[in-house]
TrEMBL record:
This is TRAP transporter substrate-binding protein. Pfam families: DctP (PF03480). Residues 1-34 form the signal peptide. InterPro entries: DctP_fam (IPR018389), TRAP_DctP_sf (IPR038404). Gene3D superfamilies: Bacterial extracellular solute-binding protein, family 7.
Length: 358
């Protein structure tokens, strides 16, 4: 009888031992991350916490860096310009060491990245993933001078954008005549002028109030930004160009202060390096592509009316906007940068990554 009791007790003791072992193991693992990090970096950006950029890109990226560094690198993220200044100052904040890392829109500092402007020309962009990987390779090979004062993490783009209208559809080029359109960058502002529109440059956070007050009637916009800003509640029509390349994109800058990077020990530099570069740019671009799909469906559900331009009409738009590309090439040539070569290289790189995606 006693033997039976002891025998019956053995499995329970074994289970208890395993439970204690697991608990202790978890305690050891959690203590690794509970310890003070060796390095704490400040990441500053302009988008709100609920934005795609913050919640699906910057936070996961920071968590991945922390995990791969075994908790030795901690990244504190400050959205919505919480550390002061305005979006146009973000790049300089990283350059000057006011913060360690920034993410911002390249076009918020006009003239700073003239070579990257080739990706913002009319009818260059494709998917966010392909265009981002192409831009990153382009930057690594051609933009050392424009990025020499910072440590490059990644450049990326969004998916080719659409034309969103408040009150009337755009089904042909003439429908843009006199329309006040939010332009995302210099190149597309010039393209809109050639189409007869009245472009107005607006930082994205101001777009909802500008639409509601009639400051603009329309916006060039990627669907990625629609839902967080509730643009689908302020516009009724969307005009899409589904042929590749699409109408336009804009590029984003993700950089680190040089000293902040150089002070890291080699093994922690490697963690940052492993979360930078072409593959990281492609991942960010895919985050934007996925958001485009989700938000377009939100627009469908809310009753947005979609118009797709036929190929013959797209050809008219391309011809009308071609002088913008010609001028960009001429401007690069004036600076001794061989605009034709840079333009053709950007096209080749986009085609390269598009082919890999298909």
């Amino acid at each position: 009888m006693k033997t039976e009791k002891i025998t019956g007790l053995a499995p329970r003791l074994s289970a208890l031992f395993k439970a204690v072992t697991v608990t202790l193991s978890l305690g050891v693992a959690s203590s690794v991350f509970a310890a003070e990090p060796e390095v704490t970096l400040k990441l500053h950006h302009m988008s709100p916490p609920m934005s795609n950029a913050h919640s699906r890109f910057l936070e996961p990226w920071a968590q991945k860096v922390m995990k791969e560094s075994d908790g030795r690198i901690k990244i504190d993220i400050y959205p919505s310009m919480q550390l002061g200044g305005n979006p146009s100052q973000l790049f300089d904040q990283a350059r000057q060491g006011v913060v360690d890392i920034v993410w911002t829109v390249g076009g918020y500092t006009p003239g700073r990245f003239p070579k990257a402007g080739v990706f913002e020309l009319p009818f260059m962009a494709t998917s966010g993933r392909s265009s981002s990987m192409a831009l990153q390779e382009f930057a690594e090979q051609e933009m050392q001078d424009e990025l020499s004062e910072v440590h490059l993490l990644a450049l990326h783009t969004h998916h080719a954008g659409a034309i969103l209208m408040r009150d009337k559809p755009v089904t042909r080029l003439e429908d843009l005549k006199g329309v006040k359109v939010r332009a995302p960058n210099k190149q597309m502002a010039e393209a809109l002028k050639l189409a007869g529109a009245s472009p107005i440059f607006l930082p994205l956070p101001t777009l909802p109030s500008s639409l509601s007050k009639g400051v603009v009637d329309s916006a060039l916009l990627a669907y990625e930004a629609v839902t967080p800003l509730k643009i689908h509640e302020l516009t009724r029509y969307s005009t899409e160009i589904l042929t590749k390349p699409g109408l336009y994109t804009q590029f984003f800058v993700f950089v680190m202060n040089k000293d902040s990077y150089n002070k890291l020990p080699d093994d922690l530099k490697k963690v940052i390096d492993n979360n930078s570069g072409i593959e990281t740019a492609g991942w960010i671009g895919q985050v934007w592509d996925d958001a485009d799909v989700r938000n377009r469906q939100t627009m469908v559900d809310s009753g947005t009316i979609f118009n797709t331009l036929p190929e013959a009409e797209v050809a008219r738009w391309r011809q009308t906007m071609q002088p913008v590309t010609d001028q960009w090439i001429a401007d690069m040539d004036k600076e001794g940068k061989d605009g034709t070569r840079l333009y053709q290289k950007a096209q080749t790189l986009i085609e390269k990554y598009e082919a890999k995606a298909n």
